[in-house]
Design brief:
15% strand, single chain, binds ligand PBG, eight-stranded parallel β-barrel, TIM Barrel, 39% helix, alpha/beta
Length: 332
């Protein structure tokens, strides 16, 4: 009695040799899929390790330029910048975000001078690296983040970055209506080819801790970001967020965090057929490093397997702190 198609069909046949596995591989991972987040700090010749992100450092602008050149050499097309604003430049209204000579703008200009069109620069729009309270926007007396007043500041922040030479504006703040407001201002300011990659489905996640250490907002933040970032229980709402941001002029959308939210990536890709990116965030990076350090997994294999999973789920690219290491592994 034959049950099913065995032995005519043996799925192990195509897995038997490495040439055949290569031939049948459905998904490819390349350095061109990677976006490398970099933390900028004041000074020169400065490299500050971040304890909760082993292997990641903050760099002063000269070091950032060196990392940018490294990205080009490795075939990484984009770097994402985040500033560790000096404490004395943080304020309740985050005004340092609008300073044309802030760390971000200096880093953008230095990278564009060094690398030109060979490297895209993605910049984060949100006020948390600039506020004395660590929230992403302006807060009222009760500590509530005020939507519309915050959007007005974010528009000026985005213009400030675009004028410094940013190629992709990436609003990570989750205010309602900010994509349309930023798109309109970019168009009116003549920045018609500056892209917007919207953090469209960004969750109020426990995986952001090391990032907050890296930009120095962790110790300042009281409470959480649940009145603007999404509830991890929600998926339909993510589709609504994405639909709105696309209608408002986003060129691409992001899902964040990454690995625990691949179902969201897949649904967004299936529904909208637009470029979808995911952010493998700081806590995910730290988990992989901790697993490797504990001998619970092999680091290089964990890195490549998780990044491949993003591609398989439908991502056009991945923001990852492992970008340079992964690019070297892929190229090797
Ligand atoms: C801030 C921002 C955060 C991240 C990127 N932009 C943290 C937050 O929302 O608190 C997290 C990135 C990471 O954890 O790697 N707007």
């Amino acid at each position: 009695m034959t049950i099913g198609n065995y032995p005519a069909t043996r799925l192990r046949r195509t897995r038997a040799a490495s040439w055949s596995r290569a031939l049948h591989r459905e998904t490819a991972l390349s350095p061109a899929d990677l976006i490398w987040p970099l933390f900028v700090t004041a000074g020169s010749g400065v490299e500050e390790p971040i304890a909760s992100l082993p292997g990641v450092a903050r760099w002063s602008v000269d070091g950032i330029v060196a990392r940018a050149r490294e990205a080009v050499a490795l075939g990484i097309p984009v770097v994402a910048l985040f500033p560790n604003t000096p404490r004395e430049r943080r304020s309740a209204d985050g005004a340092e975000a609008l300073n044309p000579d802030n760390l971000m703008c200096r880093a953008i200009r230095a990278i564009k001078d060094a690398c030109g069109e060979a490297l895209g620069v993605l910049t984060d729009v949100a006020l948390d690296p600039y506020t004395s309270h660590g929230q992403d926007g302006l807060v009222d007396a009760a500590g509530y983040v005020i939507n519309d007043a915050t959007v007005a500041v974010l528009v000026d922040q985005a213009l400030n970055q675009a004028e410094a030479g940013a190629d992709i504006i990436a609003p990570s703040d989750m205010m309602d209506g900010r994509i349309g407001a930023i798109r309109r201002a970019l168009e009116m300011g003549g920045h018609v080819n500056v892209q917007i990659m919207s953090y469209a489905a960004k969750y109020a996640s426990a995986f952001y801790g090391p990032f907050r250490d890296a930009v120095g907002s962790g110790g300042l933040l009281k409470g959480d970001k649940k009145t603007y970032q999404m509830d991890p229980a929600n998926a339909e709402e993510a589709l609504r967020e994405v639909a709105l941001d696309l209608a408002e002029g986003a060129d691409s959308v992001m899902v964040k965090p990454g690995l625990p939210y691949l179902d969201i990536v897949q649904r967004v890709k299936a529904r909208f057929a637009v470029p979808v990116f995911a952010y493998q965030v700081s806590g995910e990076y730290a988990m992989i490093e901790a697993a490797a350090a504990a001998g619970a997994g092999e680091r290089d294999a964990l890195v490549l397997e998780t990044l491949m999973a993003f591609k398989r789920a439908g991502c056009s690219g991945i923001l990852t702190y492992h970008a340079a290491h992964a690019a070297r592994l892929i190229g090797a």
